[in-house]
Write a structure and sequence with these properties.
Shape: globular
Order of helices and strands: EEEEEHEEEEEE
CATH topology: Immunoglobulin-like
CATH architecture: Sandwich
Structural class: mainly beta
Number of helices: 1
Number of strands: 11
Radius of gyration: 14 Å
Number of domains: 1
CATH class: Mainly Beta
Length: 119
């Protein structure tokens, strides 16, 4: 079963918190995590697309499983799996949707670590 981690989306920032290049989210190869994004100061959020990229290539079909969900101002992603052998890689997850009747796009920077070391 995937564990759940909450990220924040702040209206003045493109990147989630944590989840920017200077403050990355970290996963270990083989981890399966369901991320929830709370849209601070908003009352509703829906998603129209969620895409995971590695080196600019869409890896969504292999990286994601399950369904997205929305409740109030919280959007829950499909479960994200950090693939074995991806230690040292970076995933960028891009979401598009509607927040309080406005079109919204966010990114999350995820650094994949190995079991053995720091990278």
């Amino acid at each position: 079963m995937a564990r759940t981690t909450t990220l924040l989306a702040i209206s003045t920032q493109l990147w989630t918190v944590p989840g920017s290049p200077s403050n990355p989210v970290e996963m270990i190869e083989g981890d399966v995590i369901t991320y929830s994004v709370k849209y601070v100061g908003s009352t509703s959020a829906t998603v129209s697309a969620i895409t995971a990229y590695k080196d600019g290539t869409d890896i969504s079909t292999t990286a994601f499983s399950g369904d997205t969900a929305a409740a109030g101002n919280v959007l829950t992603w499909k479960a994200l799996t950090a693939a074995s052998g991806d230690g040292g890689e970076v995933y960028i997850v891009a979401t598009k949707g509607t927040v309080d009747s406005n079109t919204d796009s966010r990114k999350t920077y995820i650094r994949i670590l190995t079991d053995e070391g720091e990278v």
